[in-house]
Structure formats: structure tokens, C-alpha cells
Amino acid sequence: xxxxxxxxxxxxxxxxxxxxxxxxxxxxxxxxxxxxxxxxxxxxxxxxxxxxxxxxxxxxxxxxxxxxxxxxxxxxxxxxxxxxxxxxxxxxxxxxxxxxxxxxxxxxxxxxxxxxxxxxxxxxxxxxxxxxxxxxxxxxxxxxxxxxxxxxxxxxxxxxxxxxxxxxxxxxxxxxxxxxxxxxxxxxxxxxxxxxxxxxxxxxxxxxxxxxxxxxxxxxxxxxxxxxxxxxxxxxxxxxxxxxxxxxxxxxxxxxxxxxxxxxxxxxxxxxxxxxxxxxxxxxxxxxxxxxxxxxxxxxxxxxxxxxxxxxxxxxxxxxxxxxxxxxxxxxxxxxxxxxxxxxxxxxxxxxxxxxxxxxxxxxxxxxxxxxxxxxxxxxxxxxxxxxxxxxxxxxxxxxxxxxxxxxxxxxxxxxxxxxxxxxxxxxxxxxxxxxxxxxxxxxxxxxxxxxxxxxxxxxxxxxxxxxxxxxxxxxxxxxxxxxxxxxxxxxxxxxxxxxxxxxxxxxxxxxxxxxxxxxxxxxxxxxxxxxxxxxxxxxxxxxxxxxxxxxxxxxxxxxxxxxxxxxxxxxxxxxxxxxxxxxxxxxxxxxx
Length: 593
Known about the structure:
Elements: H1 4-22, E1 97-111, E2 117-122, H2 124-127, E3 130-135, E4 138-141, H3 150-157, E5 162-167, E6 175-176, E7 203-204, H4 206-219, E8 221-227, H5 244-255, E9 262-267, H6 274-277, H7 286-303, E10 308-315, H8 325-335, E11 341-345, E12 349-350, H9 365-368, H10 371-388, E13 393-398, E14 401-402, H11 413-428, E15 431-436, H12 456-467, E16 468-477, E17 483-489, E18 496-502, E19 508-514, E20 519-528, E21 539-540, E22 557-558, E23 561-562, E24 565-570, E25 574-582
Parallel strand pairs: 1-19, 2-5, 2-15, 5-8, 6-7, 8-9, 9-10, 10-11, 11-13, 12-14, 13-15
Antiparallel strand pairs: 1-16, 3-4, 16-17, 17-18, 18-25, 19-24, 20-21, 20-22, 20-25, 23-24
Helix pairs in contact: 7-8, 8-10, 11-12
């Protein structure tokens, strides 16, 4: 076929032949590119790009220019932007992408606790130890968060009622000072790190406990606190755990005027990895840990009757066949009657800081939404639920990337997309609360540690709190296009909320149907950053937070409803929360009479 490219090729050949025969000074061809976009006028000859410019007076029109996706101004400007002969709606790139979602408001597919939005401070943030922030001269002491900050309190209060966890690796190296003020770390608690250069001060004070309690009270949260079962309180000869320091901590916490906010206690953080993190006098086998749980159960019954004991807080090495699922299985077989709540830790991917041994999936958009990785993580959640034997299960520590998070992933809009999807996945697999590591600190903090401005993931949490509660509903969707989860709506009896995460990079029209009933009306709230996945700030309905931390609460945008179905617009790399009013609310989302 004799097309434009063939014609240009012949022109080039003929032009070169003429120059060779006549001499370059006698005659030559040049590129006529009036608009300077690199594509030449049809009458021109030698241009950098061999395709012709169909409008050499407009630099935004040429064969390399974008046209689309659907909803983009290039699809309605009456121009053939990419010079393919098909302007606007005739262009395939401008076709409307439509995804169908069906939610059954009468079929529960998971539960969310009242305080299902959890977040954490790491213990090291109170013990002045070394964490994931490194300076040019090596590790730097982690600063203690300003829990009296009005802005920090305001931002955290948007998540109420919530769950605050104090935990992390250093909880198994921390010593509670039984006296008022500072005190020295006892000899038994010194030298517990295999690498002496990582030694921490490791002391938690009365003031720390008071500040944590006051912060939780101010923001409408309750506290889950991790207790040291590491090498410090263990007999170096027998390995037996000494509960005395744990008893002193619990006694003091419960003596405070707001001490009732401490209501869940965790003996140890990621107990299956304590051997890796510390110089243990004995391997913390399931049998040894089950004995610790029996001791702790007695302690808790004496000092804080009615409080809950959570375990085992295991970390799962993120390989399907190389993990510690059996640890949870054996602990639960030995000590299920001592436990009130089963927690487990899972990070979606690993940051560049993580040791290669524990890092098969480095943080990226592709890894976060990889079906095989998500499937493996779903399997972990399912397995823990089976071993819990009917006890509540929480995803007690999680983030899009571990080891302090991944800069450019865990602090960006990409993290909000992952988090909005992950809450629904965990609810579906039986984990009724998700504790996000962390509220403040590291690259995975939901709040910027320098400015205290909310990152996109915090705004996703806020929108969840405003629009979602109770049950996750049966949801059918093609997840290759959009991530969708249906829930009962917060504070709106009978209404249904759909959370839609769109990492596709193109505008989607999502058709939402309710099984067994029709949609009467709908509104949507969009969380986005102008399509930029790398942005570390985002807006709700185009509105940015105020300098004092006030997060806007706009009325939302009406969603078109046609023949009983809602049609929501979900922009590229955006999260959309759609609240639907059904003609018949069904059973699950109705309040009890």
C-alpha cells in the first residue's frame, strides 16, 4: 500500500540522490515545521518525525499528541488531535470505559468493628531509639511525637471512634520505669540487640503513658498496648518470662483517670521473629509462648479484669510456602482458651530498606495490585481466621510497604488507592479491624511529620469514617478495571456505600446496581490528586485541607440514576465514595428496631 510513510521515504531517497548529484549548495530539502512540534507540514521534506502534521499551525495537534481518554477535553474540542482521521468521539481512545458493579444489600460478606479504623505509633517513638530515619552520619534517634499538638489531635479526631496501637519491634526491648521521671535501663535489658550499634535507650516513662492516654481521650480512641516478652524480662538460664515489669506498667496505666482507655494488651510484637531481632536466652517456641500467655492471662485477670488479651501478633514472611503460618496454628492449639483476640501483621510490599530475605515484592504500583500477590495475602488472612476458632481477628499492623515505608509510594496517592481497597479485602477475609502503621512517623505515616499535613491515605481513612460502617456487602466486579467494595453506610439507615479505587489511569464510568432492589438516588465524593499517583497531597471534591488541619466536608456530587442504576464517574488514579439510597433497604443495613 502506498501510504504517507512510504511517500516520505521516497522523498528522502530522492532528496539525498539530488544532493549527491547536484551538490548540497545547489539544492536541498528541509523540514517546514511552523508550530515547532517536531512534525512537518505535508509540503515539507526531511523532518525529525516522518509522519505528517495534519495542522501545522497548532503544536497540540500532531500524530504524537494524545486524544483521550474519555472525559478529557481532547475528546470534545472538535479537533483530530492525533491526526488519525478520527476526531473526538470517533477516536477509539475517547470511547467511554464502563465497568459494572453489583452489590447485594441483603448479603453480608464481612464485618467491620465499630473502631475498625486503627492506626499506630511505634514504641521506638517513645523510647528515643533508632528507627527507619537515617541521616548522613548513620541512624538518628527518633523524635517523640508532640501528642499535645492541636493540629495532630484535630486530624486524628476525624477518625473517631478509632483504635490506637502502641507497638513495634522495640516494644520487646522496652523497660517501663516504675518511678516518676527518668530511670536507667536495667542490665538485663542492655545488650539485647545482635548489633551493638543499634542499641536503644529503651525506657518508657510515666509521662509517656499519661500523654498517650490523654491523646487517646482527646481524639476519641482506645488503646492496644504491646508488652515486652523479649530477652530483658527473661531468665537468661531458664528462659522463663518475668511478668513483674508488665504488671507495674498495667497497674500504672489503669490507675490514671482515663486508664480505662487501655483495654487491649498484646504480649509481644511479632513473637515469631523475636529470635531474629534480639539476643534471646531461649527460642520462643509455640510451647514457650503458650506458657507466657497463661502467665499473662493470670496477670490480666488480677490487674485489669475485663480487658482483652490479643495474640500472637505474628509476622508473615511474604512467600506462599516459606512463612510462619504454623506458628499461629500451634499457639492457638495450645492457648486458644487464654486469648480474646487474634492479631496478625502483613505488609503488602517491601521497601528498599528491607533485608532481601524478607523482600520478594519491592514497593510499586504493579506489586500493590498484582493479583497473585493479593491472592497470597488473602490466603494468609483466610488461614489466620481458620485458626482463630471463632475468636475476633484483626490485621494488627499493616501498610502498603514495610521497613519504614517506601518514599514515593507509602506517602502518596498510590497508598490511598491501595488502602481503600485493602480495608475491603481484609473485611471480606474476616479481619474486622485494620491497624495502619503509622499515624505519624517513617515514610508510611499518614501525616507528614514535618508539616503535620494529612497525606492522601489519611483522607481515605476520613472518607471511610464518614461513609462506611458495619457490614461489608457481597460485591461483584471485574477487579481488572476497578477495585470495588460495598458496605452499609455510616449514619444512614438502609443506605449502601460503594468504595471505588481506580488505578487504571483513565476515566471510568461505573454502573452500580443493587441486587433485589433499585437505586433511588446517589451522591459521590472524589478523593484525588489531579490524576497524579506520586502526589503526597490530595483533595476531597477538589478542596484542600486548611492550615490548621481542618478537612473539608463538602456535600458531594449528585450521581446520575437511570432505570434504577447509578452511574458514577471515577477519574484516573482516584478513589470515589458513592452513597446510594435503595428503594428497598433489605435486611443487612437496617438498624435493629
